[in-house]
Amino acid sequence: MIFDTEERAVLAALADVIIPAGEGFPSASQAGVAAEGLDQVLSFRPDIADPLKGLLASSRGRPPAEVVAELRKNNPAGFGLLAEIVPGAYFLNPQVRVRLGYAGQGPRPIDPRPDYQDDGLFQSVLDRGPIYRATPKV
Amino acid sequence: MASQGTQADPDVLIIGAGPTGAVAAKRFVEAGMRVVVLEQGGWPDYSKARANHPDFELTMGRYWSGNPNRRQAPADYPIDDSDSDIAAVLYNAVGGGTVIYAAHWQRSMPSDFRVRTLDGVGDDWPLTYEELQPFYERVEAEFGVSGLAGDPAFPPGKGPPLPPAPLAPMGGRVALAHNRLGWHWWPAPNAIATRAYGPLRPCTQRAACMWGCVEGAKGSVDVTHWPQNVGAGVQLITGARVRRLETNGNGLVAGAEYVDREGRKHFQKAAVTVLAANGIGTPRLLFLSASSQFPNGLANSSGLVGKRLMLHPFGTVVGLFDEDLGSTHGLWGQHIHSLQFYETDTSRGFVRGAKWGLQPTGGPLSMTRGYPWGDNPIWGPNFHRDLRKRLGHSAMWGIIAEDLPEETNRVVLDPVLKDADGIPAPKLIYRMSENSKRLLEFHLQRAKESLEAAGAYQVVIAPLIRETGWHILGTAKMGTDRATSVVNPWGRCHDVANLFIFDGSIWPTSSGMNPTATIAAMSLRCAEHLVQNRRNQTSPV
Asked: pTM for this one?
């Protein structure tokens, strides 16, 4: 599904209300959320294209902060859509991920060293004794 | 007119290829029995597991969603949950619920089998912890469970075959705090391989256990059982949705009528039939199999089929820490568990208890979602600050609250809703009891104290969400009295001598534990009994 320039401009404005620039991070629009970010999200989630088009159409020409506030208050489903698409696209941006120090859910093999033995941690539990109720004798 | 099935006449027909069916089929085929299994789903498609791709968090909820009403896969049937406080979560595929479970592997405690005797509510089970213990040990070997023997919350005995997952920084902090408080904790048991084990590879802590394990480290039965079962001779027929069980003039089950994915009807004969279709699918099928001989549904002379539905209300409490806990990763899964408040203390204003499991919180998109964070104002000017406060710096207690059986909570056939094959769909009628509400509130507050004691500078109690009905129990009660139960202590229906139910439907009470360990152990115990007594079995042929 094609999103035209005007639709992307509306999305960019709404997205910057949700994720503005700050603390060394770009805003949503600066990170390409309404450009290649949206295209990426839609390639993974084509199911959200139709509802997004509707939401953008109803937001056109209105102050973006007002739209976001109203969605949060009166339209949880609509806000939920934005709250999925905007950060979803934002966190696909490689520069944002580098800045966050987040490289994805890559592998972290388990250290075989048994850390439950550190500092007598689990011995303390054993020392407190059983905490279950035994099966009653008939 | 249904066509006659072409499969060889089996000794046993199993309906459902989840954990119950997997464990039973393994035992039956080991005993030399001919086994046919009908499963409405197909094999899970792990090419859709995305934990090693950037879009993981965006796409995790589609193919791997546990809510069939949201997932709407061809194998799914709709569930009317409009009259239920909790929506059902299940998976229709080879592997069943284990495909999407978090693999928290919790045995029940001895008191869970004696609820009436000890606490004056619910019912006792017609067996004890001690009777089930050897079956727990056997299925733990089958599932590749990791953990540590000696947990003082359980009687002494053999532990699981694999060493426990690390406490990780989050577990270490909370363990230390619990030691100061004098509260229980223990390295958590998981059906997740910490080392290579049979078909399982070692876990790599991607925190993706519920959304397609890309490593093949999770003990889901599509990995641990079904390939081996099929190799041993079990005939597993996928895409086979059973629409009714047919009975003969003697009141015995003659076989199952099912529909394949092309809409063709088949009939599978069976000497013995075992239902392993979960706490919704099993009563649904018994209702669908009503006849003039069984007008209220098959095996339902007690009137209890579908009733006493228990769903385990679920709570979550998240702590924010200054230190980097590395909690984007870990087991999802649990690193430690606590059973400090599991046993009844009537001074709390309720009976029974809950189990807590400590787990990571995931990647950045998970830091922005309403669950578990609630309506927290992350959006706007503070976005980047709040995101970095959460990402990798948060840990989460998941709380499984025991639900007591009530006949008003039930599964019925929906009068209108049908699945894609025109078969009436199930409807849930479920309200959280006052006891469950008080229990959960108490545990949420104690879990908050736990995380504060561990150094959390802020604790968020997550909003209760509806899509947490993973544990579907109690809808075909087990007991010795045919007037007050559906099956006997070995899963055999009181009313139909060659029909058995092995799944979680038969639980008299729900415990406050994740149920797969007990579901699997009970399936093995019931299967073992059937094998040993098969020469005495009544069958229609």
From this structure: 0.96
